[in-house]
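Worked example 2:
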Amino acid sequence: MGDPHRVGVVGLGVISRAYLDTLADHPAVRIAALADLDDARSAAVAATIPGAEAMSVERLLARPDVQTVLNLTIPAAHADISLAAIGAGKNVYVEKPLAVTFPDGRSIIDRAAAADVRVGCAPDTVLGTGTQTARAAIDGGLIGRPMSASAVMITAGHERWHPDPDFYYAPGGGPLLDMGPYYISALIHLLGPVRAVVGAASRLRDERVIGSGPRAGQRIPVEVDTHVTGVLEHANGALSTITTSFDGVATTAAPIEVRGETGTLAVPDPNYFDGEVRLFALGGTEWRVLEPRAGYAESSRGIGLIDLVRADGQRPARAGGDVALHVLETMTALLRSAAERQRIELTTMVERPAPVPLTPVQDWKA
């Protein structure tokens, strides 16, 4: 094994803890530098990671030993930080979505290609045993030819738990750009790329009330649609329906369900790495739980960056920028379709990422 891949982390908000828990002790990577708008926060986090140094974003990007920037900033800053890192000759792994507009996402991918650096992007939850076992079942013919799928995410809104939820309701926010990457990425792994979409959207109310933290009770404006639904036409002919909403209380729908000629799969929530995959076969009488047969077992956020580092040019990263750009175009096309009331054909196309063999936790952590 060679020297560990040196990573600089920009943005130390809520999601960063999950990444650092995975990466800080992994032999394939070393957290070398940390930067955040809050200097005290970056210093406090650096003190918990041996060898890590807190610094400004500018210093981090200028360090020649930082090979990859882990971009965990808020979505509105994703493009600026990623482009700056690429301009400094560094690989980028960015929290979802790749950017908040398709042109910005396209710029990230094009500039990375020109600079000969790599781009990875969350979600990497789809590399766990949940989505990957469902994919193995489909590829193994357990449901015959897949014909359709549904994806459903219903919640009353993140302001109920997040102490600073403003960005969820500002341009670039909303349920689709926030949660859609999990569901659409999973659908691409399961069924392949999307060629066209039809969307519709609505907004329940024009303001929300923060429910927790020091700002509890404060009202914030809603500037985006908070219920988005649509149809995805996959290149293989399958049709998926998707609903993402901050305007509901609960649902009994499976997070993802894939229906084929000879069976139906209930797929676990793609916001998580594992969960039960259930099969109802044609002629059967009940659902049957499938044992995990693919995916990084017991994985956690950051596995996509590890996968990117270990791909090392031998194969495309499974949570790669090409998939993230296709997901971003799918989402922005759904929103455009809703606004224009017309079917939108996509301009990007992507290969299904390589499947993940069943990989025990002790193997991917080694």
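Residues 144 and 262 are 5 Å apart (CA to CA). The longest helix spans residues 321-340.
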